[in-house]
Amino acid sequence: MLVKLNQPSTRAFNGLFNDLLQDFAFPQKWENDLSKPKVNIKETNDLYELEVVAPGISKEDFKINIDKNLLTISYDVKEEKNEQTEKFIKKEFSTQSFNRTFTLDEKIEAENINAKYENGILKLRLPKKEEVKVASKEIAVQ
């Protein structure tokens, strides 16, 4: 026996889904979190490495500051006012300003932090102070 299922068309579902998304108001906190770039933090014996994913940004446009024990990484979108002659049918590319702040503890040599931007990822190397570096040691089992 064959049974025919009455399923709504994909086009109708997509239209309904898009309408719901447009009507849904994100709380301010969510909106701010969504516009911040994602960050990875790695630790080795000698340093911490902070990776910020930020494609399409020129390295000169990043601003990195240390004030007391706060490391701030920011980018401000520069408003360009020029006449566009192209007619976009759909435009999804955009960059947004962001500001990320991290608290540095006493283990970090703040004066030796360096940054490099490559392939859309900003990498900051935060070296540890000599006295907090963990020396590896092999322990024999008896």
Give a quick set of tags describing it.
three-stranded antiparallel sheet; about 140 residues; four-stranded antiparallel sheet; elongated
Question: Overview of this structure, please?
Answer:
The protein has helices at residues 10-23, 28-35, and strands at 39-43, 47-53, 62-67, 70-75, 98-103, 114-118, 121-127. The protein is built from two helices and seven strands; from the N terminus they run H-H-E-E-E-E-E-E-E. The strands form two sheets. A four-stranded antiparallel sheet has the order 1-2-7-6, with no helix packed on it. Strands 3-4-5 form a three-stranded antiparallel sheet, with no helix packed on it. With 142 residues, the chain is of the alpha+beta class. The model is unreliable at 9-31 (pLDDT under 50). 15% of the residues lie in helices and 30% in strands. It is elongated.
Topology (SSEs and partners):
Elements: H1 10-23, H2 28-35, E1 39-43, E2 47-53, E3 62-67, E4 70-75, E5 98-103, E6 114-118, E7 121-127
Antiparallel strand pairs: 1-2, 2-7, 3-4, 4-5, 6-7
Radius of gyration: 24 Å
Shape: elongated
Low-confidence stretches: 9-31
Beta-strand percentage?
25-35%
Number of strands: 7
Measured between the Cα atoms of the first and last residue, the distance is 73 Å
Q: How much helicity do the residues have?
A: 10-25%
